[in-house]
Amino acid sequence: MYDFCINGGGMVGAALALGLAQQRFKVAVIEPTLPREFNAEDGPDLRVSAISASSVSLLRKLGAWQYIESMRYKAYTGLSVWDAPQHRTDFTSQSVGEKQLGYFVENRLIQLGCHKALEACSQVDIYSGQSVKHIEQSDSGEENKQVSVVLCNGEGVSATWLIGADGAHSQVRQAVGIGSSGWQYQQQAMGITILLDKPVKPITWQQFTPQGPRAFLPMFGNYGSLVWYDNPDVLANLSKLNHAQLSSEIMNAFPLELTADGNGFTIVDKAVFPLTRAHASEYIRGNCVLIGDAAHTINPLAGQGVNLGFKDVEALLAVSAQYTALSSHELLSSNGFRAALKANYEAPRRRDNALMMSAMDGFYTLFSNDLAPIKWFRNQLLSVAQRIEPAKREVLKYAIGLR
């Protein structure tokens, strides 16, 4: 029997498995699809995350960052936000005493880096190519609960605690009856991978328009990623265009920064993603715990999604670390451990995640609205932010996880 069974070996689930293994717990990870091996000749994946300084620090401690570094990533040192050229705020890593603000890394490579580190963990078993068919919590008294998981091949996995790291449509959340509230945004986002003619500067930018944001994320080599927010009908029509036609639409819709200094580009890949906000009503029920997207999904406007998941990992590991010396099943299944999870994992993480969700919604409404009073306030805010360095510095530290 395992101490922890983690359903979902993605970025967040695999990171948690590493941390629990370092604490000498016995861990099972169920992951239907393991990331394919890295090939430097492959083009970039569409799904990219902005990894904050605090997330990198966690991945270093877990032993995963060294593998990610050996593959590919793009450090960025600047961040610019504007709606009109005269109302612009520029952030730099130098202003907060850091070498970089963060890193853009393909999601698959973050997951792969964690799994490479897991290969050295003898107390972790990975059930790959399998998915969960059935979840059952035994009820042999509050002090001795355990969770039984039946896989689609009929194999059984038993653990004291089941962690739902299985994404926005979490089986674990549904199986234990935890509700969630939220909505699907009226807009969607198109991710477009491009290859530029000239090397990419380490600066990411976002222009806000009444139709939605237009963003650029620098990637390794001459690659970059564009994010085009708009209503579903517009993006559906754009999806039907060939690359030459879509390039023309990009030139019309995106700011001149994209092709500054005569830098041209070609389209490599594209896809449209729905935008969803959801928040679980609780993160713990019985001996099941939710983490990452299983507990919360957020507007990806500021790239905070996976960083929030890594903050969940840190908070949960801080609780489990208190029980490392006495890691018997009896202790783990006690009310003391459950109470500690409730107080020091669920309560602070639900509060902080809800705050970030609301902040992103407010930010989105403020910067994607053309009503005259809101536009005036937005412009004043950007102008003031550009001039007042201490305020700008504090905003930036919060955004990159230094606060």
What does this structure look like?
- With 403 residues, the chain is α+β, with helices and mostly antiparallel strands.
- It has helices at 11-22, 53-62, 65-69, 107-118, 171-175, 232-239, 243-253, 305-320, 329-332, 335-367, 372-387, 389-399; strands at residues 2-7, 27-31, 48-52, 74-76, 78-84, 87-92, 102-106, 124-128, 132-137, 147-151, 156-164, 180-196, 203-207, 214-218, 223-230, 265-280, 284-285, 288-290, 296-297.
- It has 12 helices and 19 strands.
- Strand 17 and strand 18 form a beta hairpin.
Helices, strands, pairings?
Elements: E1 2-7, H1 11-22, E2 27-31, E3 48-52, H2 53-62, H3 65-69, E4 74-76, E5 78-84, E6 87-92, E7 102-106, H4 107-118, E8 124-128, E9 132-137, E10 147-151, E11 156-164, H5 171-175, E12 180-196, E13 203-207, E14 214-218, E15 223-230, H6 232-239, H7 243-253, E16 265-280, E17 284-285, E18 288-290, E19 296-297, H8 305-320, H9 329-332, H10 335-367, H11 372-387, H12 389-399
Parallel strand pairs: 1-2, 1-11, 2-8, 5-13, 11-18
Antiparallel strand pairs: 3-7, 4-7, 5-6, 9-10, 10-11, 12-15, 12-16, 13-14, 14-15, 16-19, 17-18
CATH class category of the largest domain: Alpha Beta
CATH superfamily of the largest domain: FAD/NAD(P)-binding domain
Mean pLDDT over the residues = 89
Q: Into which percentage range does the β-strand content fall?
A: 25-35%
Question: How many DSSP E strands?
Answer: 19
Low-confidence stretches: none
CATH topology of the largest domain: FAD/NAD(P)-binding domain
Radius of gyration: 22 Å
CATH architecture of the largest domain: 3-Layer(bba) Sandwich
The total domain count is 2
Percent range of helical residues: 25-40%
**Main sheet characteristics:** 8 strands, mixed
Global structural class: alpha+beta
- Number of helical runs? 12
Q: What kind of assembly state do the chains in view correspond to?
A: single chain
Compute the separation of the termini in Å.
39 Å
Which descriptor suits the 3D outline? globular
Organism: Alteromonas australica
Keywords: FAD, Flavoprotein, Monooxygenase, Oxidoreductase
Family: Belongs to the UbiH/COQ6 family.
Pathway: Cofactor biosynthesis; ubiquinone biosynthesis
